Amino acid sequence: MERLQKLIAQAGICSRRKAEQLIQEGRVTVNGQIVTTLGTKADVDRDHIRVDGKRLRFDAAKVYLLLNKPRGYLCTLSDPEGRPKVTDLIKGVSPKVYPVGRLDFQSEGLLLLTNDGDLANIVLTAGERCPKKYVVKVKSKPSDSQLRKISEGLSLEDVRLAPCRIELFREGENPWYTVTLIEGKNNQIRRMFERINHPVLKLKRIQIGFLRDPHLQSGRYRPLTGEEVRRFKSLGHERSPLPSTD
Q: What are the φ and ψ backbone dihedral angles of 133, each rounded to 5 degrees?
């Protein structure tokens, strides 16, 4: 017997966090009965579990991809406006994969896609064990005190953000900074710099935890190596400090 959200993730439908949302929305049934209570358990050998009417399958091979997302693509599986999605860039890959976390429509850079809900959950919840690093171009140069204000952790919509690391990357009238986050709220970096009146002009993710790939061209993707998959999975057990940005 396992929790439903874990089983849904293991079947490659989505991350465990998203599975909890599906359950609460009444989109999951067990033996024909709608289940909305988190923590409900089921047995994959005995129970019929369906999400949006489709029965869960547990025999799909696991797929792990690293994409260099271009600007102008959504990190979603569907869009009522018909805008381009990151999954449109993935050709000839079976089974279907979904993005781990998100980069907003105008942002670019590294993005993981997989059908392994357990690995997705590890990456999304690892915190300081899996920091994400970005390079950010902002309008005009913020003062040291302004940068300190946002790096120490702002409150956005009454939610206190974790501290982050901000360092100058390239001087200029509109300078570039490296920003390292250990959590990722919706449009967090853009909202932080808007708070100090220095809006983001460009934003690119260049690192996910230990993983970098400066040679991966925009719009292209590659499978993760076995060692890379093992290192991500090990984050579920390790505890390590925020790494250096060197």
A: -115, 140
**Distance in angstroms (rounded) separating the CA atoms of residues 6 and 38:** 11
Out of 36-50, 103-117, 129-143, 227-241, which region has the weakest mean confidence (pLDDT)?
227-241
Amino acid at 168: L
φ, ψ at 104 (rounded to 5°): -70, 170
Q: How far is CA 111 from the centre of its chain?
A: 7
pLDDT number for residue 18: 87
> What count of other Cβ atoms lies within 10 Å of the Cβ of residue 46?
8
Contacts with 152 (C-beta within 8 Å, 6 or more apart), sequence order: 163
Clarify whether 79 is annotated catalytic: no
Contact predicate 224/79, CB 8 Å: no
Q: Which of 45, 47, 52, 104 is catalytic?
A: 104
- What's the pTM value of the predicted model, to 2 decimals? 0.77
* Inter-residue contact 73 to 113 (CB < 8 Å): no
